[in-house]
Amino acid sequence: MLIPVFPGSLSEYELEKQFRNVGAEVKTVLFRTRSASDIEDSYRELAEAIKSADILAIPSGMSAGAEPDGSSKLIAMILRHPDVKNAVNELVGERKGLILGIGEGFKALLKTGLIQTGSVQDKECGEVILAKHSTNRYHCTLKTVKIEEGMKSPWLTGMSGEIETIPVSGQDSEVHLSEELYEDYLKKGQIAPQYLEAYENAPHSIEAMTSENGLILGRTGLVENLRKGLYTNVFNAKESRIFANAVKYFSG
């Protein structure tokens, strides 16, 4: 599996540990931006690495300092590079591989249309957005979510109806979309975990979404930071099962 590391990525080490702990072979690719040649080399290296990976996991963070005007623009731009776009679309479209985006990674999946359409789109997909928290401040807390019943995503195998307590941390932490789209995505089974309590002033309580075929998962919660022995003053934490499910999808 592959973890691309962008300028400003924050959780690549935690993601790597989670996947290694469940038996995955992990490769990281650093996207370098110090010179034009670095950028071109990084595009090539990333595209080639995606072609040989079964799983692509995009970490959270604040790429390019979350500027201008919000995070994930850099990641979305990189995913739209023709070579990278073709590799990503081939991964999920032809090879039926898996993609995970956490935090800012989830936002990039929405910007590029991977969640909504199952492939990278050249134009901005703005009908579903990961927006700033209603306080317009950095938001850090623990939230309880419930996995929707009947989820068919390989990421969520055997997790229907389960309750999870997860860390949520960041400025962009609310999923916004119209009521009509919400009902449509819910009917298609693309709305995965939802917060048990209304998320502050957010219009909906969505924590995560999948593509229609279930191969792509985006999560607001930083589940890579869940580990047994942490948060003991609040609850009995344990690793999220999505990582083991991804490995089992290929190993059987």
Provide a descriptive summary of the structure in words.
31% of the residues lie in helices and 20% in strands. The protein is globular, with a radius of gyration of 17 Å. It has one domain (2-251): Rossmann fold (3-Layer(aba) Sandwich), CATH 3.40.50.880. Helix 2 (36-51) runs parallel beside helix 4 (82-93). It has 8 helices and 11 strands. It has a 4-stranded mixed sheet with strand order 3-4-11-10. A 3-stranded antiparallel sheet has the order 7-6-9, with no helix packed on it.
Task: Briefly characterize the structure.
With 252 residues, the chain is of the alpha/beta class. It has eight helices and eleven strands.
Span of the ends, CA to CA: 16 Å
CATH-derived architecture: 3-Layer(aba) Sandwich
Strand content is 15-25%
Low-pLDDT runs = none
**Class from secondary-structure proportions:** alpha/beta
Molecular shape: globular
Q: How many extended strands?
A: 11
> What does the average pLDDT come to?
90
Order of helices and strands: EHEHEHHEHHEEEEHEEEH
Main beta sheet strand tally, sense and closure: 4 strands, mixed
What multimeric state do the chains show?
single chain
CATH structural class: Alpha Beta
Going by CATH, the homologous superfamily would be: Class I glutamine amidotransferase (GATase) domain
